[in-house]
Amino acid sequence: MHIQFMIEGSSSAALIEVLMEKLKDGVPLLTYDVKYFHGIGGFTRKNTVKEIKTGKLLNDLATYLRGFSKSLQGIQAAIFVIVDNDDRDTAKFRLALEEVAVKNHIAVDRVFCIAVEEVEAWLLGDESAIYKAYPLAKKQVLDSYEQDSICGTWEVLAEAIHKGGLRNLKKSCASYREIGSRKKEWAEKIGVYMDCAANDSPSFRYFWQELQKRLLAC
Prior knowledge:
With 218 residues, the chain is of the alpha/beta class. The chain is built from eleven helices and four strands.
């Protein structure tokens, strides 16, 4: 079984890499590839070169789905598209993503996984893993978090695990790129300890259940 991931950003990709490497130990026939983009972008309207040559996931979605659908024909495979969502209705967003696949006649099995509000919600879904990676994490902050809530998720995680909290993190990072590097680091460190079958994030559970369904067919 081959899983092709299309992922919005590098921190999400880092988490998936860690989880899939752990999973491969028990599924020897599993292979995977991760293609990550530089942000989510937006759905195209006219499909001009300017719209689709952006490096953004939604802009390039149709192009990559067609390419992967062609290259994966004839083998047991699935495409997993993982995106963040903080301002769309999740059900409608998933339907819009599926509509792109249908319009482009994508024959390969595909799953659209939406992290609510962002992939840090998946990390916050495993409090035990956070404490193992960051023993000094602030319990009060973690206890106050509501799973998959729209609350500034990465900021909540930063407040919980970064020395000096969110304010100190912002002071020490001169750019959002530096913050992105920290987010990637959190994903890698916490991901190592995650118990995927016991995660409290509903959007992560959807991802994990859909992945398990495909692996059962191996």
